[in-house]
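Support request, priority: normal
Reporter: lab tech (M.K.)
Component: structure prediction queue

Hi team, I submitted a job for NADH:ubiquinone oxidoreductase subunit NDUFA12 from Sphingomonas kaistensis yesterday, and the status page still shows it as pending. I've pasted the exact input below so you can check whether something in the sequence is tripping the parser. The sequence length should be 127 residues. Please let me know if I need to resubmit or if it's stuck on your end.
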Amino acid sequence: MGLLASIFTWWNGATLGTSLFTRRHGREVGRDETGNVYFQHRKDPARRWVIYNGSNDASRTPPQWQSWLRGQLGDVPDKSLPPARKFQKPGLPNLSGTDGTYRPAGSLARGGKRPAATGDYQAWTPD
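Reply from support: The job had stalled in the queue. We restarted it manually and it finished. Here are the results:
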């Protein structure tokens, strides 16, 4: 990312100000499988933050790292949580507004048709 873009864009990675603050006051504590980098303040360990690899979207942060960011875990997830179980699926980012959005049966966006009424509905009419 170019210098000019890093000064003005906050939605894709870190701005210049965040990068400078991180370099001066932050200590890297870990990375997740998507490339997000997690930091802790050198003097105040309760201050924690993430620099995203790509767009700044909190739904791209795995649940275990969300817990660490909120102070629910005292240490990084790799050290304080048990290993993932076989049945656990990896988290998904927020898919709203994309082709991966959930569309129930009958949704016009899905191209389906609504099921016929079952007859248990009686329309209201004013008296």
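The first strand starts at residue 26 and ends at 31. Helices lie at 3-8, 16-25, 63-69, 77-80. Let us know if anything else looks off. Ticket resolved.
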